[in-house]
């Protein structure tokens, strides 16, 4: 396991390479990440759909959902929330602002396409009809709850979420084995799901799956629409996720890389 200062130095190279990927390859890898996160979300929803106790249901969700980031990290793909750490190579002047923004836009759109793809297949394959429709109703309930958050609540939960996601990514960079990466990322992701924080890419699956379920199964969901998805949840959560990632990336850059040529940095 690398020391934190070594992780910071390693991420400068990792992040620089991410930002300089050709757009087509970046997009394909982002689609895969959206698929992986969505499949994990779908699996967690299946596991918890018939559990009546809310805290137990959330715990089971939290134990399963980290499988998405495991696939992202070990299979190789591009996830928007983790890529907020690109602030580090930007501050090190290894990439330019337009390269950071290009990466964010391409990866965000790829994540959205991958997540929507899984949401569509999940509902219209009628997997969402499991348990006599309880799963579909659970998906709708989740989507309604997420789009009913106030802008400030969604934003603040997005900050907290991506602090934990970026810490999980940070740990995986420092681990030298697959087992170490999985073990290192697992608990931070469990914590964010268990606490009910908001992850924009996960919500790219959960809320569209709820919208599709309303259409396919004739369920009712007051206020749930594509407009509420984008404006009431995805927008504030995305901004919160970016700020959470900046807090981690900027903080660790300052602690371990800022003016390192003039002083010795201890791990």
Characterise the protein shown here.
The relative contact order is 0.18. The protein is built from 11 helices and no strands. It is globular. It has 267 residues and is mainly alpha-helical.
List keywords for this structure.
267 residues; mainly alpha; 0% strand
Helices and strands in order:
Blueprint: H1 4-19, H2 23-48, H3 54-64, H4 67-76, H5 87-91, H6 97-124, H7 134-147, H8 151-174, H9 178-195, H10 200-217, H11 226-256
Rg from alpha-carbon coordinates:
18 Å
Count of separate DSSP helical elements: 11
Give the tally of β-strands.
0
Label the structural class: mainly alpha
Q: Tell me the series of helices and strands, N- to C-terminal.
A: HHHHHHHHHHH
Shape: globular
Average predicted confidence as pLDDT? 96
The percent range for strand residues is: under 5%
Q: Compute the separation of the termini in Å.
A: 12 Å
As a percent range, the share of helical residues equals over 70%
- Give unreliable regions as ranges: 261-265
**Biggest sheet details:** none
Short summary:
With 267 residues, the protein is an all-alpha fold. The protein has helices at 4-19, 23-48, 54-64, 67-76, 87-91, 97-124, 134-147, 151-174, 178-195, 200-217, 226-256. The protein is globular, with a radius of gyration of 18 Å.
